[in-house]
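Customer ticket, subject: "Can you confirm the structure for Phosphogluconate dehydratase?"

Message body: Hello, I'm evaluating your service for our small team and ran a test protein. I'd like someone to confirm that this is what the system normally returns, since I don't have a reference to compare against.
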Amino acid sequence: MKNTHSTVAQVTERIRERSRPTRDAYLRRVADIGGRERGSDRLGCANVAHAVAGAPVNDKLRIVAERAPNIGIVTAYNDMLSAHAPYQGYPDLIKQEARRLGATAQVAGGVPAMCDGVTQGTPGMELSLFSRDVIAMGTAVALTHDMFDAALLLGVCDKIVPGLLIGALHFGHLPTVFVPAGPMPSGLSNNAKSKVREQAAQGLVGRQGLMDAEMAAYHTVGTCTFYGTANSNQMLLEAMGLHVPGTAFIQPGDTMREALTREAVRTVLGRASDVAYRCPPIGQLVDERAIVNAMAALLATGGSTNHLIHWVAVARAAGIVIDWDDFSALSDVIPLLTRVYPNGSADVNEFQAAGGPGFVIGELLDAGLMHADVLTVRAGGIREFAGVPTLAGDAADAGALRWTPAGPSKNEAVVRPVSAPFSATGGLRLLQGNLGRSVIKISSVPEDRHVIEAPARVFDSQAALQKAFAAGELDRDVVCVVRWQGPQANGMPELHKLTPPLSVLQGKGFRVALVTDGRMSGASGKIPAAIHVSPEAAAGGPLAKVRDGDLIRLDGVAGTLTVLLPADAWAARETATMPDEQRAADGHGLGRELFAGMRRNALTAEEGACSWL
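Agent reply: Thanks for trying us out. I re-ran your input and got the following:
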């Protein structure tokens, strides 16, 4: 293993210095709270009685008289979402394992879990980003009963994991382990599904044909199989040492899943694999090095662009300040090691079979591109996360789990070593220019489309773009500018519904790109898309000055996003305001008005779009 790469070390030190006042204050709070007596000893008798009134008699005895550890479970279970449906039986299994170890566990609370796949292209998507902060608050409500010695967090998908993590970091004195549920088995391939969507956008496939394809792709419990935000979450948690190692992509129906869930209980209690190890409080574990490790893993796998928002917010919850310049500096030295859809044709099940997170983490550690000297929830440190779990006996057997090295790659079309990467640089890139700062998922864009220069067509909504496409108005080289989609405007919805029509245009040979202050899906595909443009149009950002016909250049090689106008002409250009009809439509109906305060208080995308700071 090499010493830490100089750029990784420099970025980490820059973050540490920038964050010192807020991080020091955070750690003091964690230490102060962690130094108190345990809950049932500290709280009043009536408080404790309320807390255990619904517990079985033996659990009451353990919590109050025997002073046994009590685990708080925060769950995102609901049976509508495939990724979270497997969690239904987890609390009973966790309680059973805790009791076997002389401890107790209580479901402290539940948090909402919404699916962007369900709300994509609908008004509900305008609640999506801020659902992260609602989940963080829900986690705080659950844990604020303050009767817990540790926490297990049950959640997988897009906003759920960042929300749970932000909430948990506000209870940084608690040892905390995330418990995933795994991906669904492979169905219709992601490439085939996307092809049918493009055909439907052209009217070549009807609703029934499209429905059949979607049902074949999303067909049972588990996360979606593409490498979007949900599965990127799991990669980042592995890289931060917050899972039982190798847990991310074991399918819900695998017999090992029960063993790994039981191991999570043993881990948070400090008895992992029968080895006594005190699981550190999460506030100490998630430090600058852990955040940089997550950033490195994201870049090496070409993960979701959403995490250039979410992990900024996660870091801030721990008193750590990161920005897109940090991602950009790391991207210059972190190689792209995976080809998983939308960066390739493989899905996450194929990624797992080829070596998965363990292989990537092992390669990055060996190359000095991740910090090796970090705390994790396990005694073996981050190196243990370069392994793959196997089951040697019965799932309920505490000694059944074994870990073996994930490398070498089992399929170099899917994962490659640092010595022979798919690209010498990371999958995400910062774009800067007179249109602001934005990001692009460059790893999924064909190389001949890394630079697009074309006239702008400006839209005030995604519906307007779809209407223009249907009318044949976009059959030309064009940069589609979709504005008023930022956090303050309408909650920053994903605009993934625009992928099929823009893909059709690109397939016809036109040079097209998307520029927006909104988000794209974590499955952002082959269309060059400058997203998260900041400052947003609603805050007077430069997208509010763009007019139809302006020549725009998106240069993913040079890292620039510019409107090609003389500086004085651009400076003198009047800034538009959000149209009244758009303002009236955004933020009303289907609960959107309840989030008005969050929209007003939201920070910029680069600041994590936080509504709680």
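A couple of notes from the result: The chain has two domains: 6-36+69-185+220-405, 428-607. The mean pLDDT is 94. Feel free to reply with more questions.
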